[in-house]
Amino acid sequence: MRQGSPVNWLVGLTMPNLWNKTRTTLEMIKWEHSIFALPFALTAALLAANGLPALRTLLWILVAMVSARSCAMAFNRWADADLDAANPRTKMRAIPAGLLSRQFVLGFTLLAGLVFVLSAAALNRLTLYLSPVVLIVLLGYSYMKRITRWSHLVLGLALGLAPSAAWIAVRGSLDARIVVLTAAVMLWVGGFDVLYACQDYEHDREAGLNSIPQAMGLTAAFWAARLMHLAMLGLLVWFGLLFHFHVAGWLGVAVVGLLLAYEHSIVSPRDLSRLNAAFFTMNGVIATIFLVFVAADLLMRGGIHAL
User: Fold this and answer.
1) 3-state secondary structure of 151
2) Which of 138, 199, 266, 303 is the right S-S partner for 72, CB 3.0 to 4.6 Å?
């Protein structure tokens, strides 16, 4: 029996080994960062239901969000394993460091993708029909940096689909108004991915990978990110008008703007040392605050009632 066969792979999964692989997998996919897009999905779900959706719907939305993101992250690590190994910043990721095999990560990707499709099927027919399209976007992003400098916007779209998908999960149909929030999230994520890619400026040039920093330089990349985030705020204002925000909703938009300004104030082309604090910590805060303020807006209008 050859060493890499599925039987030997399963036999090797003793309980301690399985626990170690599970812990390493969770670290690899950064599961805690699911909070980036999840609050925007929940915002859309609240607006679609004009209050709290059914608990069953909320639970399946949560399962779909976490499984979709886990599938995308694992596939990205699988597809980029050789690139990560050549990059000093990423060479200690699970596959290049030998903590997980490519076969294991691919198997996890397939499992997470299956859970996503099953959760989409549990929601309604349209979410099931659209689930392959969502997976194409999520998985396709991993190859975009080999093709175009605008890969950041593809990543943004992958996360930006969350509010539109959540709306469909609740309503069974798409409303053009929620696409405005999808576009806002796309620019929000895309802008910060531009900043994040500044860390790999030199490596991307040497490896022939595409990004806005690689193509335009660090200073121009920062301006591109600022313009994306200004456009995102403009879309949030439009979104607020479409959904007739009251005071709480508009306060949420204002707080998002202030937090974005703060994030841009702590990083610069000459100092990327606080980039992780801006990218990971504050982005989760921004998404959560927007959800809280929109929920408060609905509550004050009598739109949210106890389950």
Assistant:
1) helix
2) 138
Q: Identify the three-state secondary structure at position 243.
A: coil
Residue 282 has what DSSP assignment?
A: I
Contact assessment for residue 170 and residue 57, using Cβ atoms and an 8 Å cutoff? yes
Determine, yes or no, domain membership for 18.
no
CA 285 – CA 291 distance, rounded (Å): 10
pLDDT given for residue 154 in this prediction = 95
The candidate with the shortest Cα–Cα distance to 159, out of 33, 29, 20, 63, is: 33
> What is the C-alpha separation between 224 and 213, in angstroms, rounded?
9
Q: Which domain holds residue 280?
A: 30-300
**pLDDT tens per residue, range 249-272:** 999 999 999 999 998 988 888 888
- For tokens 């202030």, the residue is 258
Full-model pTM: 0.88
Total domain count for the chain? 1
pLDDT confidence of residue 252: 97
CATH number at residue 213: 1.10.357.140
205 within a domain of the structure (yes/no): yes
Which band of pLDDT confidence, cut at 50, 70 and 90, is reported for residue 222?
A: very high
Angle between helices 102-123 and 125-144 in degrees, nearest 10 = 150
In sequence order, what are the residues at sequence separation of 6 or more whose Cβ sits closer than 8 angstroms to the Cβ of residue 41? 61, 65, 162, 163, 165, 166
C-alpha closest to that of 272 among 194, 198, 204? 198
Q: Judge whether 196 lies within some domain.
A: yes
C-beta of residue 163 within 8 angstroms of C-beta of residue 43: yes
Task: Tell me the CA distances in angstroms from 204 to 51, 79, 298, 304, one per residue in order.
Answer: 46, 16, 45, 48
Does some domain include residue 17?
A: no
